[in-house]
């Protein structure tokens, strides 16, 4: 092997390591730990990430419910709704 191929191989290994570190940062896959010999599953979602997702999901659901309640309050407090209710009661 000449010098060119050794340098090319080292650069490719370094680029693969950087790409794995970027994926770790973006998706929390723990690929760098896996490369370093730690025996954790790189594709297993951690409890913290699962907890944060559930909190985000609940917050979104609460916001959606608040918006629906506001729409219902607007409908019920309209004068036309009260008039329609009185007409239907007759």
Q: Write down the Rg.
A: 29 Å
Unreliable runs, pLDDT <50, ≥5 residues? none
Given helix and strand content, the structural type is mainly alpha
How many angstroms does the end-to-end distance come to?
97 Å
What fraction strand?
A: under 5%
Task: Set out the fold topology.
Blueprint: H1 3-27, H2 31-35, H3 47-77, H4 79-89
Notes on the structure:
There is one protein chain. It contains 4 helices and no strands. The protein is 80% helix and 0% strand. The longest helix has 31 residues. With 90 residues, it is mostly helical. The protein folds into 2 domains: 44 residues, no CATH class; 46 residues.
Features:
90 residues; mainly alpha; 2 domains; 4 helices; 0% strand; rod-shaped
Give a brief rundown of this model.
The chain contains 4 helices and no strands. It is an all-alpha fold.
